[in-house]
């Protein structure tokens, strides 16, 4: 029985996926040659490929740029008060809303920034905040 289980496990986890994995590896290495990846430690490579899973939210606040707002405007102070009270999962959902991903790219944790802009709408109470994911701009009505 042990031999049967060993052979079955080997088939399921190795043999049955050998061809699809080889095809994937071939395509991956075409775009990302293995010799370039050898300079990274495994943990560094994981961050580069997956992004940062943890964020320093105070650093994020410090790096934000403002367009037609000032750091001490009441709308901005209210935004950050509410933001810092959110649970971690909701903060990541905000990052996903803003950027399209719930993770910050691996190479820019200290330099990651976004802009909070006033959309200059006539009646701000009729508009919800919206984001430009490509430019990382949060349009936040007053």
TrEMBL record:
Gene3D superfamilies: Hect, E3 ligase catalytic domain (3.30.2410.10), Hect, E3 ligase catalytic domains (3.90.1750.10). It catalyses: S-ubiquitinyl-[E2 ubiquitin-conjugating enzyme]-L-cysteine + [acceptor protein]-L-lysine = [E2 ubiquitin-conjugating enzyme]-L-cysteine + N(6)-ubiquitinyl-[acceptor protein]-L-lysine. One of its GO terms (molecular function) is ligase activity. The active site is at residue 134. Its EC number is 2.3.2.26. Residues 1-142 form the HECT domain. Keywords: Ligase, Transferase, Ubl conjugation pathway. Pfam families: HECT. GO terms for biological process: protein polyubiquitination. This is HECT-type E3 ubiquitin transferase.
């Amino acid at each position: 029985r042990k031999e049967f289980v060993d052979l079955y496990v080997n088939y399921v986890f190795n043999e049955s996926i050998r061809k699809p994995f080889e095809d994937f590896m071939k395509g991956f290495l075409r775009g990302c040659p293995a010799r370039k990846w050898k300079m990274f430690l495994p943990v560094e490579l994981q961050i580069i490929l997956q992004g940062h899973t943890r964020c320093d939210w105070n650093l994020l606040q410090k790096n934000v740029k403002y367009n037609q707002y000032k750091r001490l405007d009441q709308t901005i102070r209210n935004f950050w008060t509410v933001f810092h009270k959110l649970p971690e999962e909701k903060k990541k959902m905000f990052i996903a809303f803003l950027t399209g991903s719930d993770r910050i790219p691996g190479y820019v944790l200290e330099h990651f920034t976004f802009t909070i802009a006033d959309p200059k709408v006539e009646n701000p109470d009729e508009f919800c905040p919206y984001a430009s994911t490509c430019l990382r701009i949060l349009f936040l009505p007053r």
